[in-house]
Design brief:
Shape: rod-shaped
Strand content: under 5%
Radius of gyration: 59 Å
Order of helices and strands: HHHHHHHHHHHH
Distance between the termini: 44 Å
Mean pLDDT: 83
Length: 584
């Protein structure tokens, strides 16, 4: 009788396999928790970044408001030019009407020349009249002086007209130059500012779209992770396979048998169990190796994509202040800042030009007032003409020696009336002109003041816009810099997965050690069986398969039942389902 001491080795293998089963279950359970969590975290990453969208919307609103302000200012600029054009047209019309004044003043001058000639003729007659003409001589002398004053006044009015004309042309040229300066400067600024504002809006959209595109590509990481999750389900088969080995090891006991035949049958049974356990352990090893390789390949693909997307995000963020496409926002802002500073400098020149135009308008009004006051001086001279005319007629009527002066006196009266009419007409012309000028310039002053206020408000608004754009740009840049392609939770969990997979390598080594122990145990059984066969003069022994059949009924994997049937050299019953069966 051959006796084997198998329990010690068998129990050690069972304990080791139980530990392996627990370790395997623990690893797969951890993987089964980690990878679904990673997939869920990826799904949460795909939700729109509200801070990013909010920052983009703030910059978009700021640029849209700025563009709206520019359009409103452009409209006001066109309206201002139209108002100035209408103002100059009205002033032109007044100046054209003032042309009538020149003819009237010329008539007064000619009448004054006639009056001076008349005074000379009267002076001759007065001298001839002797003592009677002495008083009349004083009258003719006063008439000559008054005529000279009239001539001087007409010259003065003429010079006033020239000054007024020059002032008008000077003011007109200044106002037209102001219009042209505004058109050239503001139109250029408005065109460039529109381009800058539109560019900032487009740059912010491109930046957000690029980051969103990178974030959306995280879905490419999801596929290999999902495939890992699917393969983790193989743990059920590994666990059931280890259970089958444990069931088989529980049967591998060294039992006392009453007969050598019974002992040979037990040895054959143990030998089949050892082979069955070895092959199932081989299968378990292969399955773990396959999972390990598959996990590693899929994980490497996920890691490659994660690294690529992280590098793209880093490049996008680092390019915010450079000349790359993501730096378009900064370039646009700097261009806009330069443009606004240049506009402020140009605006100072524009303000000075407006002040000059306003001063020229004052000179024009002063010239108009001077002209009016000059013509009003004719009233005093007219009184002198009337007094001289009356005195002359009285003297002619009192002295018979002055009878020849009746015609001169009559002509003097006629000329006095003519000068009086011409003067009245000229005063009416200048009075209407002056009133028209004053009305125009009151409106002009109101408009100029309002425009200056609008200009100041526009410049202040631009400064506020620059500040708002800076704040919006800084917020967007900070949001982009702080944004994540992958959450910190995902990256932390992801970095641990490689370490978890390395545990599978240790399980393969553990199973290899258990296979070695099982092989040693199987060799002991085979050696004992060989000794007993030799003692009995036998070359082989056929196993009684009923015991093996009974054991494999507890197996839940059909391929293991089939393997046991092959080793035990028996047929599976027709009632056994040929599909893979699992109770889990």
């Amino acid at each position: 009788m051959v006796h084997l001491e198998l329990d010690h080795v068998r129990k050690a293998i069972i304990t080791a396999l139980q530990n392996t089963s627990q370790a395997t279950e623990g690893v797969y359970l951890k993987l089964g928790q980690t990878y679904p969590a990673l997939v869920r975290e990826l799904d949460s990453d795909l939700v729109d970044n509200q801070d990013l969208v909010s920052a983009r919307n703030t910059l978009t609103r700021t640029t849209a408001d700025a563009l709206s302000d520019l359009e409103s200012w452009d409209v006001r600029l066109v309206r201002g030019h139209q108002e100035r054009h209408a103002f100059l047209e009205a002033l032109d019309h007044l100046m054209e009407r003032l042309g009538e004044l020149k003819a009237g003043v010329e008539d007064i001058r000619e009448d004054s020349v006639q009056m001076e000639l008349l005074s000379l003729n009267a002076m001759v007659i007065a001298v001839r009249a002797g003592e009677s003409g002495r008083a009349f001589s004083c009258i003719t002398d006063e008439l000559k002086k008054t005529s000279n004053q009239t001539l001087e006044l007409t010259e003065q009015v003429g010079r006033g007209e020239v000054v007024l004309g020059r002032s008008f042309e000077d003011f007109k040229a200044s106002l037209q130059g102001l219009n042209q300066l505004e058109k050239d400067m503001l139109s250029s600024f408005l065109t460039q500012a529109r381009r800058v504002f539109q560019g900032l809006g487009e740059a912010s959209q491109v930046l957000v779209d690029r980051l969103s595109q990178i974030q959306r590509q995280t879905s490419d990481v999801k596929d290999p992770l999902v495939r890992i999750v699917v393969e983790i389900q193989n743990q059920d088969r590994i666990r059931q396979s280890i259970d089958h080995v444990l069931i088989s090891l529980e049967e591998m006991r060294s039992e006392a048998t009453p007969t050598p035949e019974a002992q040979l049958d037990n040895f054959a049974y143990l030998e089949v169990l050892a082979g069955l356990c070895s092959q199932v352990l081989d299968e378990i090893q292969d399955q773990i190796r396959h999972n390990r390789q598959s996990f590693s390949r899929l994980l490497a693909a996920a890691q490659l994509k994660v690294g690529t997307l992280e590098r793209e995000r880093t490049a996008l963020v680092s390019g915010l202040d450079t000349g790359t496409s993501s730096g378009a926002l900064e370039r646009g802002f700097q261009e806009g800042t330069t443009l606004f500073h240049a506009f402020e400098a140009e605006s100072d020149r524009l303000v000075r030009h407006r002040e000059i135009s306003f001063q020229k308008s004052l000179l024009l009004r002063r010239a108009a007032k001077t002209l009016v006051e000059g013509l009003q001086s004719f009233d005093k001279i007219l009184d002198q003409f009337r007094n001289v005319d009356l005195a002359a007629r009285i003297q002619v009527a009192r002295h018979a020696a002055l009878g020849s002066m009746k015609g001169n006196a009559s002509e003097m009266t006629t000329l006095t009336h003519t000068i009086e009419a011409d003067t009245g007409r000229c005063i009416a012309i200048t009075g209407g002109f002056y009133q028209g000028v004053e009305d125009l310039f009151r409106a002009y002053t109101v408009n100029a003041t309002a425009r200056a206020t609008e200009d100041h408000g526009f410049r202040e608004g631009l400064q506020q816009t620059v500040t708002q754009l800076k704040d919006a740009r800084d917020t967007l840049k900070q949001t982009v810099q702080e944004s994540q392609v992958f959450t910190s939770t995902f990256l932390d969990q992801f970095s641990q997965t490689e370490a978890d997979l390395q545990t599978l390598d240790r399980l393969v080594v553990d199973i290899e050690e258990q296979k070695a122990s099982l092989k040693s145990l199987g060799e002991q059984v085979s050696q004992a069986k060989g000794v007993l066969l030799a003692e009995r003069g036998l070359s082989d022994w056929k196993l009684n398969e009923e015991r093996l059949k009974t054991m494999v009924e507890n197996f839940t994997i059909f391929s293991h039942k089939k393997l046991a049937a092959q080793l035990g050299e028996f047929e599976l019953s027709a009632s056994v389902d040929s599909g893979e069966v699992t109770l889990f």
